[in-house]
Write a structure and sequence with these properties.
heterodimer; A: mainly beta; Immunoglobulin-like; six-stranded mixed sheet; four-stranded antiparallel sheet; 0% helix; B: mainly beta; globular
Chain lengths: 115, 116
């Protein structure tokens, strides 16, 4: 079984500043890693995913994440945020040895971007 | 349709009543998932369908919860004898069902269930 820890429940950030959202996972097997975003009153939307290969993954809206196997982390970054990036961000993990696509989510990080 | 749709968007019921929540997946998606999101928490897996069959129902909390997908498209999540602790947003997602769980899950807007 695997679990996901998002270390920050809320991250305030000024517009045009960089942001990093931290995600750590625990698993005894190889995993797939995902970041989803939930805008107010909308469904979850995939930002990016790591399946294999290059540890730096680029996603939509200028976001990227780096998979670090030794630290069991998958932190999300954006070099310059916009007001429209205000949303809740969820890290998730699945395992190829588990049932297909069964995602285990973290508790989420609320990002609040202010001018 | 263009995306995953869920009906109703809001459901208020009384303790002990029966409720049904509906999910219409993206056309052609063979895999369908139900999750539950309680306030302040991330989504929690409930059940996963591949076609008409429930491939993994390990997340259903107890036998009051049941889900069906009789024709491999629309799915209904059924909750009997609702309890106040069932109050949450119920999310549905669908995907193409590619091998190994590598494909993207597309989520609907959810149904907010409130049990009084």
């Amino acid at each position: 079984a695997q679990s996901v820890t998002q270390l920050d429940s809320q991250v305030p950030v000024f517009e045009e500043a960089p942001v990093e959202l931290r995600c750590n996972y625990s698993s005894s097997v190889s995993v797939y890693l995902f970041w989803y975003v939930q805008y107010p009153n909308q469904g979850l939307q995939l930002l990016l995913k790591y399946l294999s290969g290059s540890t730096l993954v680029k996603g939509i809206n200028g976001f990227e994440a780096e998979f670090n196997k030794s630290q069991t982390s998958f932190h999300l970054r954006k070099p310059s945020v916009h007001i429209s990036d205000t949303a809740e961000y969820f890290c998730a993990v699945s395992s190829p040895t588990d049932s297909w696509g069964k995602l285990q989510f973290g508790a989420g990080t609320q990002v609040v971007v202010t001018p | 349709g263009a995306g995953v749709s869920q009906t109703p968007s809001n459901k208020v019921t009384e303790k002990g009543k029966y409720v049904e929540l509906r999910c219409d997946p993206i056309s052609g998606h063979t895999a369908l998932y139900w999750y539950r999101q309680s306030l302040g928490q991330g989504p929690e897996f409930l059940i996963y369908f591949q076609g008409t069959g429930a491939a993994d129902d390990s997340g259903l909390p107890n036998d009051r919860f049941f889900a069906v997908r009789p024709e491999g498209s629309v799915s209904t999540l059924k909750i009997q004898r609702t309890e106040r602790g069932d109050s949450a947003v119920y999310l549905c997602a669908s995907s193409r069902g590619l091998a190994g769980g590598t494909d993207t899950q597309y989520f609907g807007p959810g149904t907010r269930l409130t049990v009084l």
